[in-house]
Every structure is written in C-alpha cells, then in structure tokens.
Amino acid sequence: MVEAPDHGHETTSEAYSYLIWLEAMYGKVTQNWAPFNASWALMEKYMIPTHADQPTNSFYNASKPATYAAEHPAVSDYPSLIDGSVPVGQDPIASELKSAYGTDDIYGMHWLQDVDNVYGYGNTPGGGCEQGPSADGPSYINTYQRGSQESVFETVPQPTCDKFAFGGPNGYLDLFIKDSSYAKQWKFTDAPDADARAIQAAYWANAWAKDQGKSGDVSATVAKAGKMGDYLRYSFFDKYFKKIGDCHSPSSCPAGSGKESEHYLLSWYYAWGGANDTNAGWAWRIGDGASHFGYQNPLAAYALVNDAALAPKGATAKADWSKSLTRQLQLYKWLQSAEGAIAGGVTNSWEGSYSTPPTGLTEFFGMAYDWQPVYHDPPSNQWFGFQAWSMERVAEYYQVSGDASAKAVLDKWVAWALSQTTVDPSTGGIKIPSTLKWTGQPDANWSTATGMPPANTGLHVSVQDYTDDVGVAAAYAKTLTYYAAKSGDAAAKQAAKDLLDAIWKHTDAKGVSVQETRSDYKRLADPVYVPAGWSGKMPNGDPINSSSTFMSIRSFYKSDPDYARAWAYASGQSSTPPVFTYHRFWAQADIALAMADYGRLLG
Fold it and tell me: From the CB of residue 531, how many other CB atoms can be counted at a distance below 10 Å?
C-alpha cells in the first residue's frame, strides 16, 4: 500500500480521528461511552508526544520561533540552506498556552506512525529515540520534507528523533537542511485536518451523550478536545510568523507581531522540534502559510466557539476560532467554481519561499490563489475525495447551525456533484467524479472581514475521469444526508440512499471494497534523490546513496506476498498493472458512519 503513507503497516493521525468518530457514533447507538473514551486515550498514548518525546520545549523562545529555510520546487534543490538573516515574527500564543495548561509541551498529534517498527527506527512513544529494529511496538516516523514536487515515491523515511544512529554521519538531517553543524534533535509534524476531525467527533459525542443524560460520561475526554483545539491554532499562522498578505521575498516581507501573522485558516501542517540535549537545549515551532480548502472544518470551529464543554482555555482561543469560522466560510465561497466544485487554496508564501506569485493572480486577504497548494505530484486538488470530505463538514455545520452562507455554498456544490453522479443501487454501480481539472481563478480579490465574496464566472472545473471508490462515495453520501436533513432537498436525499444501497452491494468477508487498478505502482522503481557523495544506511542496512530507489531503501517489501506482481509491473516485466482490493480504515469507518447518519437523520 503506497499512497500518502508509503507502507500499509503505517497509520496516521487521520486514522485515529476516524476511530474516535466511529466510537462516538457507537456511543450514540448503544449509550455505552467507554469505547469513545478509550479511543481518545489510545490516540493520546500513541500519537500525542509525551514530555519525554519533546523534552526541550522549555527552551523555546517565542520572540524567535524558528530559523528560516526556503522550500524549493525540485527535490534536487535540497538540502535547503538555513538562513538566520531572514526576519521571522513573534509567536503570540505560546505564553497563553503555557499559562492555560501549565506546560511548554504541545498537545497535538504527530501525523505518521510505523505500527510494527518495520523501518526499525524504534522511536517509540514515551521516549524511545532510535532504539533500533529490536524495539517493540509503534514508532514515530516522517517522510515528506523536500518541497512540492516530492511524491511519496521520492521520499526518504526518517526518524522523528535523530541521534545519528542511522542514516549518515549527521543522521538524516543534512538530506533536508544545510547548516554549518548538526545537533541531535527531535521534531514532530501535525496534520490539522485530523486534529480538527477528532474535535468534530468529540462535539458529536458530547451532543449525543447530553441527549442521553450522560454528559458526565464523556466530559473529561471532550475537555481534551478543547485543549487540542487550542494548540491547533498553530496552523492558523504563517510558517515563520511573517505578516499575512503580499508577503513577497524572504528579506523584505516583514516579521509579524501580535496576530499580524495569523490567517485563521487550517493550513497544511504545523510542526515543532528541539534539541535532544536537555541541559543545553533549544526548541522551535512553525506554522504554515499554505491552506487547502480540503482541510477546513467549520463544524470544529463552531464547536470550539459555541460548546462550553469543548471550550479551549487559551485567552484568545475563542476569538481566534470565531474569526476562523467566518474566514473558512468565506474561503469556500471565494474558491467555488462557476460549476460548484471548490478550487484549491491560498498561500502566504509562494513556492514556500515567499517568492513573488505570477502576475495577475487574485488574492484572498492578500494571499495568492493556488490551484494546487502544497504538493504538485499529483496535483493536490485533482482528487474528488477532498470535495466530499470537506463539504461533508460544511454540511454538518449547516445542519447544526442553519447558516445561510453555508447553505448557499452547498446548494451550488450539491447540484454540480449530482449532475456528475450515476448510481444503480440494484447492481452496485457507482460512477462519481475522481480526477478534476481546473482552469481560471477567482474573479476578484477578497479581503473584507464581513460578508461573502461574489460568485465566480472565470473559475472552472471539469471531470477528467470517474470512480466507484466506496470510501469517497460514503463521505459524499454523508454530505448529501446532512444537507438533505436540513434543507429538505429530495434529490439529495434520494441520491444519498442510492449511494448507500450501492455501496452495500460491495460487501465482502473483511468489509466493503471494490477492485482498484494501480498503474501508479509503476513508480515503485522511481529513483530517490540523494546528493552526490552522500552515503548512509537505513536501520536494516539498506544503503542510501545517489543510486537509491523507492524500493532499494525499502527492501522489506520483498517479503510482502504481493511484491512479485507489483514489482513485475514496476520493473517492466509485465505490462499489466496490478489490481488490489483494499480495505482502508478511514473508508470502512466512513461507510459505517454514513449508514448511521442516514439512519438517524433521514431513515
């Protein structure tokens, strides 16, 4: 399994958030909230770094959060030179978070975990720093680190805590950052959409437990979701806390003070790290200036503002999330194509280096439109799944709040999506959009704190091909269900039912699945860029050098029972792409949730 993670025995913060959501619904159905609480505890144990995993946060200096290093379009442009001369802004929330929670540590999920320690780093939760292949249990790892063109097939997996036990003389650090010297260090990366989904699930758990007279059963867990939301605000800030808007050139774009660096959108990540040495330590934190519409979650924002049980304790947290709710809805509208689909996103740092955007690009609060924010291989907004995932949250928000601005976006989106959908519930035939193509851009700049942008006439989407993916179909069905439940739209209600009936025709012994032809597995033979002269080893002894490929640094794949047929295609021995029947956890959870939501709202 090679998709965003590069091995099927990895798991993600996304998967944990789906587990929490699934157990929230289980509590709704059974009135037993122990599994919901247990799912949050499991996530907290394995995905939120303990103090031992992030031991030097006390050295963090909020007036200088991190030292600048540019991102680059090409993987071969790395390592990136670290440049202390570039001005960086101030972190305005660090002190209020410490005051609220009594710790310097960050309460957010790291995004990726090697469940069986297949790579052998042994970065085990609770303080295991490169304990090696013999370490038991899950291990924190990271992959992407080298710009927008770095596909999963071009990554070098690396440990989150690097004490130079593996890799080269400087561990893995000098593959990514060019510096005069290198220190043993730890670092974690948060995927904001996953944290927001966990908060969303906690909101529902609290609402459903309250309906049952059982608020006390979930109150302690739900309060932790509020805490997670407090720290999730790091995703609202420019990467280096520079001023939002027309931020062009690293040297001349000014450092932000106060909230000048806050765009109030859920960006692609936030990250934090520091030295291993607890005696002579240092630490850093970064946000991200690039925001994809697919990561936004107005329901989570609404919950953090309006549900006292989820109230974050940070002094300005509620105000930030309130502003974020408005800003997110404006972003959806500003990015809505003439047809109805939502285009990519915006960035405060063009190409990740504060470069000047192409002339004529329209702007959202001074941030340039980007049809493929963050990554380009494949383009980040060609997948219809982001439409279904993100609009489902808008539909939940609309169902809860009745907000007319959310309804207006949904009205147009649902009409477009239904026009591109064919379902035969009697046979299980499903034909929904898969790959999208974008032309044009939003019609005009938008920087008004109130009101909604006008409709776009020059921004267009077309559907390049279609899919019967059951996970995306389930998320899409949920969107239609919530929308129909509030609006009364008969066509949306019928389409939701038809999709669910069709999905259920694809049940098998393990769950629900359809066959997939994986022509992208041709790239299992892709070269992995390693600078000339750089030499090192993976924990299992696989050499890392300028001749490395995706598979050569992952030789453990050779023991996979499906390796031979996948490699025959990748190596050109076979012209037939391999066909797989996958059961992704998120998809199975979304199918279950879609069935339950239809049952409770429309059934």
Answer: 14
